[in-house]
Amino acid sequence: MTMAYSGRFAPSPTGLLHAGSLVAALAAWLDARAHGGHWRVRIEDIDTPRCVPGADQSILLQLRVCGLVPDGPVLWQSQRTQAYQYALQSLADKGWVYPCGCSRKDIENAFEAAQAQSVGRHQTAVYPGTCRTGLNGKPALAWRLNVQAVQATLGLPTLTHWPDRRLGLQQQNVSQSVGDFVLRRADGLWAYQLAVVVDDAAQGITHVVRGEDLADNTARQIVLQQALGLPAPHYLHTPLVLGDNGEKLSKQNGAMALDLRDPLRALNAAAKVLGLPAMAEQTPIGQALVHWTALYGQTLGKAVSTSWHPKHNSHTIRVNSMP
Fold first, then answer.
1. pLDDT tens for residues 22-62?
2. First and final CA of the chain: distance in angstroms?
3. Residues in the chain, pLDDT under 70
4. Which of 24, 6, 5, 39 minimizes the C-alpha distance to 274?
5. What is the pTM of this model?
6. Which residues contact 177 (CB under 8 A, 6 or more apart)?
7. Helix, strand, or coil (residue 29)
């Protein structure tokens, strides 16, 4: 097996895994196995007010019941404070971050004044750079990345491009679409963007497979990777599971926890969303692996085989050189 590939699944313990979570977890696991690589699990528990006590261990149990067992130890973001502080300080030393005293309402008011329209239900107001040149007497609340300064100093284009292995070529002007984004929040907690970039690099993640709802974050993360001198992983964003209201199934809109009394049924539901055929009882997941490899695998010149061990609820994956 070649271990050049390293993927991950990074759930937030704000509740148990639901149907949408399993789609992302299964896709990430299949992609790692199709490439003969490692599959990591990272618990993204930096938003402590929203974390449910014990949910992290329950999530790990849910994954194990489905046969999705990580390679190596699990990483908890709540134990990574020093790494995030070091990254923020390194950006500050280059003059690429600044304190911000704007409240969310301040930003929305500035956005609405500039756009002559109110912020929509699913829209986030673009930060206008109000505090980029100083706080003007306001107390510092958050820390933001000066996107324009990073791009100008490093000679980066204002339009960030990246290939998505499912969605195709993507692009975003971060300054126009998002503005200078937060690295440390007003409540003192670390922002998702900083934590995920630092941890992907620390874990040696080469391929990120996650839900399509996170595709919009990719450009920000690439800019931050460039600012920190870190490599950018390859990205693949999976289809979303929608609720009865047509919106993305999530914990925030009341998604039910996975019913794992029949793990194969739950896995087959996830496989269907990914465009994979149903798995049989005798060879669960192994069949999905073969079809995933045909769609997204890059084990060039190699044959993939798999066997299931019901007693241990685990899989053996072999990637053998083809003649």
1. 999 999 999 999 999 999 999 999 999 999 999 999 999 99
2. 16
3. 1-3, 115-123, 243-255, 281-284, 298-323
4. 24
5. 0.87
6. 126, 219
7. helix
